[in-house]
Design goal:
76% helix, mainly alpha, single chain
């Protein structure tokens, strides 16, 4: 299989694994505080991929991947800091709006990633992708207002958008080191970001959840963050930050479906209008055959 096609599969698989995060986190947040949940989600990713890496060495001892060096340290540090801030904002956002809204708003990460890739890292963005970015932005604006005839900003939506901007920067930092070991990157992201969030949670006075919920969060973190991020990084190696984000845009729609099934949510007309715009944007993004360059 061609590397580009395989990278596309990795991007879609990453999206599918992340899609379960929003509705399941909504359920978990009834039993655990937001910052502590963000911490254990990332610790689950880091510890899970640490075990994954050990199995890789046992099963494929001759396979060698490039390790991170001091040259990549600035991007690595920035990646960890952003991965502390973003999930905390997301968890607080989930507590303040319905999970279907949060799932759709996650598409704004594509906008942030693409614009940052263009302005700072000089990646090429096609006209089709620009059109899709504008449509996602429009849909995000629709979801960010409460509706009911009043132009009142939805606090939860704004927190989610803040998380998306942080992840937009983080995606571009990760792209700079995506040629290195994807497992090592996720272990660093997960363990250090998780410990950072845990320290903040304890300073805020948040209590540790019951053991069963701690294990549930760790397990969700391994699947929705650990494996998802690993496949995302593998996709970036051949597609670039902007294009990988475009394929990743199927995740919100899977998240909406899971939210409606698991949480029985019934969003209003405002949501469906935004979803129609997002769906059209996604079709445009997936149909864009351009490849990002630096």
């Amino acid at each position: 299989m061609k590397p580009k096609n395989l990278a596309t599969i990795y991007a879609i698989l990453a999206a599918a694994l992340y899609a379960v995060n929003i509705p399941l986190s909504k359920l978990i947040l009834k039993h655990a505080a937001p910052t502590i949940t963000a911490a254990f989600l990332y610790l689950g990713a880091g510890l899970g991929l640490l075990l994954w890496g050990s199995l890789e060495k046992l099963l494929r001892p001759k396979t060698k991947q490039a390790r991170l060096t001091k040259k990549e340290l600035p991007y690595t540090v920035a990646m960890v800091v952003l991965d502390i801030i973003a999930p905390i904002l997301l968890m607080f956002g989930i507590t303040r709006t319905n999970s279907a809204n949060v799932s759709l708003l996650n598409n704004f990460e594509i906008v942030a990633t693409s614009v940052i890739a263009l302005i700072i890292f000089k990646e090429v963005i096609s006209r089709r992708l620009w059109l899709a970015i504008l449509m996602v932005t429009l849909a995000s604006i629709i979801l960010s207002f409460e509706g009911k005839g009043a132009f009142t900003l939805n606090e939860g939506s704004l927190l989610v958008l803040g998380a998306c901007v942080c992840w937009g920067f983080e995606n571009n930092c990760t792209k700079r080191i995506s040629h290195k070991s994807s497992t090592e990157i996720v272990v660093i992201k997960g363990c250090f970001s998780g410990l950072g969030s845990l320290g903040i949670a304890l300073l805020l006075g948040e209590r540790l959840p019951e053991m069963i919920w701690t294990l549930a969060i760790l397990g969700l973190g391994f699947v929705a963050y650990g494996l998802s991020i690993k496949f995302y990084i593998m996709a970036q190696q051949h597609l670039g930050a902007a294009k990988t984000s475009a394929f990743y845009s199927v995740s919100p729609f899977l998240g909406v479906a899971f939210s409606m099934i698991l949480l029985k949510e019934q969003p209003g007309m405002q949501f469906y209008l935004a979803m129609a715009v997002m769906a059209a944007a996604t079709v445009i993004m997936i149909g864009d055959n351009s490849v990002s360059t630096e």
